[in-house]
Design brief:
29% of the residues lie in helices and 27% in strands. By secondary structure, the chain is α/β, with parallel strands linked by helices. It is globular and about 60 Å long.
Length: 376
């Protein structure tokens, strides 16, 4: 079948993207689903900084690539071997397909699935093949999803069935922003009631981490960002303190209000400066978590002796250390209860795929939290 999709042909084009147009709306050929795969209709897709990082070249990926990795969809048809989903089911798409049998999947760490990550780096589906083509030339898949399109073929291992009562534009956020942000708090950091938490970088993922810290019972939640508008939103969402991350005295200010630093600091800036700030405001014996993906050539500088004598913990968090089949339903239940109001992070709905380049300008400027393309 033929579909319309936003395709990246060249990384690193200059801004503004509304003029350079790195994403072209193309008519692609989409092959039918193979063994263990589904054809889905994309109903809503979120614009994430991970997409932007591919566009600007910070995350090297093969091109041409059909972008998009955070989405809600409706099952259209199933390939051989898929018996637990039927046409009409609603699903959230997860950007690391888990094979279910590698060493990491076997111990409950599907975010580290070796075949899944290998497929994502190669720009294929989990099976190692591509289902997209432009005039007979293969087009790479973005993280096994490629959801800036009206339809997609995805692995069953990239899908979690969801309650059809939840609007698609909200469900889409659970595929990346919620899993990554909330999971970093409850799974990676294991924040405890009464503790102190700081979130550095208040994009869609960081604000989800802030919401999760409140749900986890943190007594003090410190929000740090360079933009005043995001600090104000963080305060509305429950932050007890908010600081300008660019303030030269910010480390001293955070330490002053938290009696020497927070027990857990979580970085979602995607920069070495953000991680170093998060580490600097973590107290002795505390934990620093980073879920922000910087360019692979960037490095951080930490004092080794301090890591030892202060018994610090430094941890990475990918997909929020989640088990999607377990965590998506429980996070959706928190949303239904009003305890995880992720809908408040939805800045703008995009109605036309042709407006996607300008929308990435807004994301790069930091003037929005989460934008969602709603297909209707």
């Amino acid at each position: 079948m033929q579909i319309r999709a936003a395709v990246l042909h060249e990384r690193g084009l200059p801004r503004p993207y509304a003029e350079s147009r790195p994403l072209r709306i193309e008519t692609l050929e989409l092959d039918p689903p193979g063994e263990g795969e589904l054809l889905v209709r994309i109903r809503a897709a979120g614009l994430c900084h991970s997409d932007l990082s591919v566009i600007n070249g910070d995350r090297p990926r093969p091109v041409p690539m059909a972008l998009g990795h955070e989405a809600a969809a409706e099952v259209v048809s199933t390939g051989p071997g898929v018996a637990d989903l039927v046409p009409g089911d609603h699903v959230v798409l997860v950007f690391v397909p888990s094979c279910g049998h590698c060493a990491y999947c076997a111990v409950g760490r599907p975010a580290l699935c070796e075949p899944g990550n290998a497929a994502n780096v190669a720009g294929t589906l989990l099976c190692g093949e591509r289902r997209l083509a432009l005039e007979g030339r293969p087009i790479h898949h973005h993280l096994g999803i490629s959801c800036f399109a009206d339809h997609a073929v995805v692995s069953r291992r990239s899908c979690v069935k969801v309650d059809p009562a939840v609007p698609f534009e909200h469900v889409a956020l659970f595929g990346c922003a919620v899993l990554t942000g909330v999971g970093s708090v409850v799974n990676t950091a294991r924040v405890e009631p009464g503790s102190s938490v700081a979130v550095v970088g208040l994009g869609g993922v960081g604000l989800n981490a802030l919401l999760a810290a409140r749900v986890a019972g943190a007594a003090r939640v410190v929000a740090l960002d360079v933009l005043a508008s995001k600090r104000s939103l963080a305060a509305e969402l429950g932050a007890t303190d908010a600081f300008d991350a660019a303030d030269g005295c910010v480390v001293e200010r955070v330490r002053a209000v938290t009696a020497g630093g927070v027990e857990c600091a979580i970085d979602f800036t995607g920069s070495e400066q953000g991680l170093e700030l998060a580490y600097a405001i973590t107290r002795r014996g505390g934990t620093t978590v980073t879920g922000g993906l910087a360019h692979p050539e960037r490095h951080v500088s930490l004092q080794q002796a301090g890591l030892v004598v202060e018994e610090r913990t430094l941890k990475g968090s990918y997909v929020g250390s989640c088990i999607p089949a377990r965590d998506v339903p429980r996070f959706l239940e928190l949303f239904a209860q009003g305890r995880l109001p992720v809908d408040r992070l939805l800045s703008r709905r995009i109605e036309r795929l042709e407006d996607i380049n300008a929308a990435f300008d807004a994301l790069a400027d930091g003037t929005v939290v989460r934008q969602v393309w709603v297909t209707g």
